[in-house]
Amino acid sequence: MKILVTGGAGFIGSAVIRHIINNTQDTVVNVDKLTYAGNLESLSEIENSDRYAFEHADICDARAMAHIFTKHQPHAVMHLAAESHVDRSITGPSAFIETNIMGTYVLLEAAREYWSKLNETRKSAFRFHHVSTDEVYGDLPHPGEVPPGAELPLFTELTPYAPSSPYSSSKASSDLLVRAWRRTYGLPCVVTNCSNNYGPYHFPEKLIPLMILNALAGKPLPVYGNGEQIRDWLYVEDHARALYKVVTEGKNGETYNIGGHNERKNIDVVKTICTILDDVIVNKPEGIESFSQLITYVVDRPGHDLRYAIDATKIKNDLGWVPQETFESGIAKTVHWYLNNKEWWQRVMDGSYAGERLGLSK
Fold it and tell me: pTM of the prediction?
């Protein structure tokens, strides 16, 4: 099986590609524009595989997408390319509209044109797998807002969309485009909506790697508002396993929610990281006895959702997937990965990898 993965140099995309190359006999074509968060060094362990190919291209480029489909003749598409940072979407929403909505449209059209010319066997087996987020659902009641003893609600595949940010609105729009292309044109599609990912190779602007690296540098650990926002944390390698399950075994037209069963307050996530670092870092920054001293509360961002939580019953019952990592095991692995892979994140932080990526240096 040959799978075309968009955004394969990103955090989740690279985990998917590593999983496929290391654990299956399938072939992967990685299509990535290599924006600021795209890092081919996240794929160094598999880049020389004869089952891996890289295409440097923008999903908004219709001519390039058509050429890639014709050249590689994929059996399936896993569409992960997206702008994904909420803060960036608030200060600069246009990139999110362009990539997440227009890029998905261009990719759908390229896939539809390619798929329409396949023989009937290849046509029926083809899948367009669109990878999305639980943020399209908006937010859920916080425990303090629910009567004592009442069951806390979860996002299901039938939860209405109510996105709060430009990012989540753009992802909701792309989800709806995929559904429309299936309904109108018959393109075989599946959609997945995942909770917050974390793990190795995560770009340092996101909460968990930002806290780890700021702590190591003795910098403030900025926590929005009171830190009571709740997220369901999903270890990225568990997510990669789930995504491969869906693209190979998922039913055409279905949506599958993927969650880690690990609801945690943001402030508790930060404190857990501090506790792990306290235990393993002997020589702390000057004046610091515990990394929790660096926690700083900052003004909350506009429209900040209070709580996300996924009901992943459907993917468990239909496809047999459950997460392998608890939050405790996953966060420990993540912290130790950053401690042991300083060269990777230093090159991201100081911009040296970006320069090489853009051909500005060797």
Answer: 0.94
